[in-house]
C-alpha cells in the first residue's frame, strides 16, 4: 500500500490542496466508466409516457459552542441540500447534492454528492444501480451488522447516527417472496469512512501530536491513506429477511474492507536518535456474519442482534509497542476476531418514546492480552423522547454509558417547528471521562458543547 507523508498538524487522511469542487470532479471522473455502464443498462428498459418530477431542498445552519475555555467554536457550518426524484413507470431515479461552508474545518467546505441511483421495480423484483444508502440490523446508534455504509466522522454536534452515514456505489438486487425477502449487494468501488482533517477539532482525538518514548517527546506524522480503488477490490453482501406474525428476523453476511484504516508505527531515524514517530495507514479485508430479530411483546418491542467479524486490526499493548520500536522493528497491529451482541427494548406509552439497549463487544482470542484495548467492553444506552403541542415541540434525551470504565456521552435537544418549513433546535452533547480518564467517550471530553441549529425546508 503506497502512502504520502503529511505532518501531524496537516490535513491527515483528507488530501490538502484540492477544493471541494475539485474533489467532486475527481470522484465523478474516477467513476465515469462505472456510471456509463449503469446508464447503458437502464437505457434498455422502456420508459413510461408520463414522467413525474419531485424536488426538495433544505438550508441548514449550525453553531456549536464548547464548554471548554481552550476552544473556539467546535462546529460552524452552513449547508444547502437538494434532492431530485424522477418517476417514469417502473423506472425511477434519485439524486441528492449538497454544498457546505465550514468556518471551523475549511477542508469540509465544498460540494458533496450524496445519493445518485436508479431503480427498476417489476412486481416483486427490484434492481437499484448507483450511489445509495443501505441500512441493516435492528440496533440503534451502534454498529453490529450495519457495516455496508461507512460513517462520516468529521462532525458530531447535532448529528444523529443515520445522518452520519455515507452512500456507497454499486448494485443492489432485491426479491420479495411470501414472508421472505432476499437482498444481494455488489459494491465495485470501496468507500472508506470520512476522517477529520488537521484543522478539525476531532483530528487531535484520533491522532496524537506527539508521544513520549524513552524520556523524549517525539512528534507524530501521519501518512496519507490511499484506499483500494480497483473493481477487483469490490465488496459483496447478502441479507435474507423473514417476516412472521410472531417476529421478524434476518441473516446477513458481508465481505469487504475495514472502513477505518489501521496504522503501523515506525520510528523516523536521525542517526542513532529517532526524530519522530510515523503512522502508516492500511486497510484490510474483513468478513462479517450476523443476525437480528424484532419480537413484539405486548406494548414492548424486543430487539436482538449479533455479529461476528474477522479481519479486524487492533493496536498491541504499550509494552509490546515499546519493545518493537526499541529493537528497531515496525510495530504492526494485531489481527483479531470480534463478537458483538445487543439486546434492546422499546416502549411507547401515551406519546412517549422510551428505548434501552445493552451491548457487549468481545475479542475472544485476546482474552489473555495482546491488545491495547480490553478484550471485553460492555455498555448501556438509554433514550427518551416526547412530542408536545401537536408535535410542534419535540424533546429528547439520550445517554451512552460504558459500564467498564464508566465514561459516557449524553445529551438533550429541543426542536420547535415555527412553521411547516422552518424549525429551530437547541441541544447539547456532553462527554465525560471514565475511571482514570480511560474509555472511548472520555477522549472527547474537551469537545462537550452547546449547539443551535436552524433548518429551512422547501
Indicate the CATH class.
Mainly Beta
Percent helix, as a range, is: under 10%
CATH fold name: Porin
SSE class: mainly beta
**Strand percent estimate:** over 45%
Instruction: Label the overall shape.
Output: globular
Number of β-strand runs: 23
Question: What's the total helix number?
Answer: 4
Poorly predicted parts: 1-26
What is the chain-wise order of helices and strands? Answer: EHHEEEEEEEHEEEEEEEEHEEEEEEE
Element layout with pairings:
Elements: E1 4-6, H1 20-30, H2 32-43, E2 52-66, E3 75-88, E4 91-102, E5 110-122, E6 125-132, E7 168-177, E8 180-189, H3 203-206, E9 210-213, E10 216-224, E11 235-243, E12 248-257, E13 262-270, E14 273-282, E15 285-297, E16 300-314, H4 318-326, E17 334-347, E18 352-362, E19 376-388, E20 393-402, E21 408-417, E22 422-432, E23 449-457
Parallel strand pairs: 10-14
Antiparallel strand pairs: 1-10, 2-3, 2-23, 3-4, 4-5, 5-6, 6-7, 7-8, 8-11, 9-10, 11-12, 12-15, 13-14, 15-16, 16-17, 17-18, 18-19, 19-20, 20-21, 21-22, 22-23
